[in-house]
Amino acid sequence: MKKIAIITSTRAEFGLLTPVIKSLRKCENSGFNVELIVTGTHLSMEFGYTIDEIRRSGLRIDEQIVIPVDSKDAMDISTNQAVTLRKFTSLFDKKHYSGIVILGDRYEMLAIAIAAGNTHTPIFHLCGGDTTEGAIDEWIRHSITKMSYLHFPTNVKSYKRILQLGESPKRVFNYGSTSIDNILSLANIPREEILGSIGLQDCKYAICTYHPVTMESGRIYEQISNFLRAVEAYPNIEFIVTKSNSDQGGAYINQLIGNAEYRIQNLHVFSSLGVVRYLSLVKYAEFVIGNSSSGIIEAPVLKVPTVNIGDRQKGRLQSESIVNCESDTKSIVNAIKNVMDADFKIKCKMVVSPYGDGHAAEKIAEKIHEVVYSDCIDLKKKFFDIEV
Q1: Is it the case that residue 36 has pLDDT exceeding 90?
Q2: pLDDT in tens, 314-362
Q3: 61 and 55 in contact (C-beta within 8 Å)?
Q4: Which of 3, 48, 57, 347 would staple 272 via disulfide (CB 3.0–4.6 Å)?
Q5: Mean pLDDT of 252-279
Q6: What domains lie within the chain, and their CATH numbers?
Q7: Which pLDDT score is estimated for 214?
Q8: Distances (CA, A) of 92 to 35, 113, 122, 361, 373
Q9: What average pLDDT does the chain have?
């Protein structure tokens, strides 16, 4: 029996993994099984208990691994990683997976990758090779790349960076981002219905997500205060905010934005909107604002402008529909003015995404299935040298 596991710990990464899960499970038979392991903030009421979203999707859940998700300081993050490492080492030692599928750059995914390495479990990694200079995700992502056997970057620049890290091109496959697959198939709820589902009537609105800039953790209050003042500067626009993730400082951001909701009438805060509802809201938004990768990858595909604040996403390949700005109020206000310009909106309609053609998941699933069945995985990787 060949058995692989797909691991999800957050709402955002579950959305990106969903088409891969569905594609791989089309291959299931008596000799090939695909398990879904749910962990992290999915099992936390504070972050919306988004395992319910997974259940509503109809996807079978095979394992639930509870890990701590406190994020007040560095000790919390290290404790979370330590518990995660122990629990997943025990799971992998018991299950003997032929490989695990993980995505991105979360600190808990680093612990899971270490557990896989300690138990000689092959790692199939999605979204490696990106750069995000303002977050610890940068070094976590590249560390996971070196632990992984198969690599599925989302664009050609990330593909080249993985080769720079010494990974053989025979194990690196640029099929694009699964977010494009999602957008083309899931952003389908009508405008009036999707706004009604969150208690709003037809209006001009923006979609917001503000995550911690973990390399600037001491500036959270200043950054969020500046962002909220910019929101107040546009009272004719409703700002629909999804809460921050569980990076260090995320809980503080959520507290600040949650408190502000009571005094700022055009601010509406949600723990989680769900993948389908979120993408459908983005589709009709005036713009996306904040520092989430969604503004870099998903929004341009839907021809929606993005205001990208600060350095969290610095280094990612960007489309011309993205306006970058500093985190002070004046810069944010001016950036919003720019993306609301009629000529800029017309320009956004012509943007072509550099993140693939919408068929990434099926190609990823086919390659994983092929490699697992080939019985040719050798974890004693040679370093692939390139000319410098």
Answers
A1: yes
A2: 888 899 999 999 999 999 999 999 999 999 999 999 998 888 888 999 9
A3: yes
A4: 48
A5: 91
A6: 2-177+356-374 (3.40.50.2000), 188-348 (3.40.50.2000)
A7: 61
A8: 12, 11, 11, 24, 19
A9: 93
Residues paired with 206 in a beta bridge? 239, 287
Cα 186 to Cα 270: distance, rounded to the nearest angstrom: 20
CA–CA distance, 223 with 386 (Å, rounded to integer) = 41
pLDDT at 135 over 80: no
Q: Distance of alpha carbon 372 from its chain centroid, rounded?
A: 26
Q: CA-to-CA distance for 288 and 290, rounded, in angstroms?
A: 7
* Distance of alpha carbon 296 from alpha carbon 298, whole angstroms: 6
Backbone angles phi, psi at 181, to 5 degrees: -55, -45
Amino acid at 106: R
Please say whether the beta carbons of 6 and 101 come within 8 A. Answer: yes
Question: Do the Cβ atoms of 335 and 325 come closer than 8 Å?
Answer: yes
H or E element at residue 94: helix 74-95
Cα dihedral value 209, 261, 229, 306, nearest 10: 20
Beta bridge partners of 38: 8, 64
List pLDDT tens digits, range 183-232.
878 888 999 999 999 999 999 999 999 888 766 666 889 999 999 999 99
End-to-end distance of the chain based on CA atoms, in angstroms? 44
The dihedral over CA atoms of 184, 142, 218, 331, expressed in degrees to the nearest 10, equals: -40
Buried b (16+ CB within 10 A) or exposed e, 230-248: bbbebeebbbbbbbbbbbb
Q: Is residue 105 very low, low, confident or very high in pLDDT (cuts 50, 70, 90)? A: very high
DSSP per position, 283-347: HH-SEEEES-THHHHHHHHTT--EEEESSTTTTS---TTEEEE-SSHHHHHHHHHHHTSHHHHHH
Pick the closest to residue 41 from 31, 32, 51 (CA basis): 51
